[in-house]
Amino acid sequence: MSGKVTITEVAxxxxxxxxxxxxxxxxxxxxxRPETKDRILAAIEDLGYKPNRAARQLKTGQTRIxxxxxxxxxxxxxxMFARHVEKTALENGYxxxxxxxxxxxxxxxxxxxxLLGYGVKGIILGSSLTQFTHLEDLMEQGxxxxxxxxxxxxxxxxxxxxxxxxxxLAARLxxxxxxxxxxxxxxxxxxxxxxxxxxxxLAGYKFALQEAGVEPDPKLIWEGTPGTFGxxxxxxxxxxxxxxxxxxxxxxxxxxAINDMYALGAYQGARDLSLEIPxxxxxxxxxxxxxxxxxxxxxTTIKQPLQQxxxxxxxxxxxxIQNTYSGEQEHISLTPRLIVRGSTARRKHREPLATSR
Length: 357
Fold this sequence. Notes:
- The protein is about 40% helix and about 15% strand.
- It has 13 helices and 12 strands.
- It is an alpha/beta fold.
- The chain has 3 domains: about 1-55, 434 Repressor (Amino-terminal Domain), CATH 1.10.260; about 55-165 and about 310-335, Rossmann fold, CATH 3.40.50.2300; about 165-305, Response regulator (Rossmann fold, 3-Layer(aba) Sandwich), CATH 3.40.50.2300.
- Helix 1 packs across helix 2 (about 20-25).
- It has helices at about 5-15, 20-25, 35-45, 55-60, 75-90, 105-115, 135-140, 165-180, 195-210, 235-245, 260-270, 290-295, 305-320; strands at about 65-70, 95-100, 120-125, 145-150, 160-165, 185-190, 220, 255, 280-285, 300-305, 330-335, 335-340.
- The strands form 2 sheets. It has a 6-stranded parallel β-sheet, with helices on both faces. It has a 6-stranded mixed β-sheet with strand order 7-6-8-9-10-12, sandwiched between helices.
């Protein structure tokens, strides 16, 4: 049985956190209450818990591992990001634990606590949530974080390193491209915008419209169900959202989708309505995943320099873990690039659909 027992089970039986069990196992129990220590030792004995070789290596600092928490590798963008992070980590003598959080704070907390309990000292966090309050005490215990795609926020108690593109600029590039094609009814297609990166993209979209003298229409901003980000079902949500935006009484003639997966879903939403891309409607995505080139027509999108983002994030995290970089926390902002393909064209007059509402 001992080979199957985990530190999490010990913590649960003892009624303490994983990091508390780890502190005892690693000789950091000077401030621990005697009764707490006794409960942990009793749980270890009752369960027959024996740390395996990897755990012992973690405690002695011999095994070097970093964590990577992303929303969901169901989106190929995050799968490719993980691949680049792993490559850079291996080149620097580290391995990677990959976790999918679906942007749920409680799941991120659980993963981070578990990783810290096993001796992992650093995590790359890709959820871009508006707050890190669920991780603050773990950071105070020595957990290093590097955020991908998240600018620091005024309410952050801990300023952490971050790497990503200028999301406001990315949305402006996409929207200005559609404006240059003669479109004025431009939709914004997204799941919940309750993340820093998505709020920035929405702000960039609105700014580009206002720059061109076009007042943003709330009816053209589709955010789905509150709290639903669509990381694992973006194609389904993109299809549904596009269907609604293209069916308005005064419909969108073009869309900027929050990412390529939503954009590809919008392809099907358009085809449900017998609309041709780009003859009837134009669509722009963001990320430049590999599927964009083989879509029919190939998708116009905003390219993120993903390999560079992954390399910079991983190297900075390792520098923090090893204390080889002691500078102030900073945000490294990279420049997005518009890739024009076949999904956008000059606007043509289109009569409202018979199903419009």
